[in-house]
Hints:
Elements: E1 14-20, H1 26-39, H2 44-62, E2 70-77, E3 81-89, H3 102-110, E4 113-119, E5 122-130
Antiparallel strand pairs: 1-2, 2-3, 3-5, 4-5
Helix pairs in contact: 1-2, 2-3
Amino acid sequence: MTQLTGQPTTDDDVVHLTVPADGGYLGVLRTATAGLAARLQFALDEIEDLRIAVDEACAMLLAIATRNAELECRFAVTEDALTVEVTVPTVRGASLPSESSFAWKVLTALTTSAAARATDGRATISLLTRRASGY
């Protein structure tokens, strides 16, 4: 089950991508996000919002990533939702932006829900976007 939806997924419904924690590789994650959202028949504006949200989440994580880190991205597809979890090893003492920050407000405005956690030297941002009804 995915953390945010509580809906079961199978291994066929989960995509893992690992890229260097470098802004030059974020296009790969944006493209994968758009492709999976299109597979779920998200509207074009929903796809663009999710691409922007993934980009913003990655930017937050890149700011606190260790040198030569890898950005791990897990996409979980359910019938009407896409959950994206991005994880990176963090430098000692790093913290994620507070939920009152502008960056966090952007994430919550562009997705159905967003969550963050930092434990054991790793930070994860999870984004859930449900397809709008009527499709």
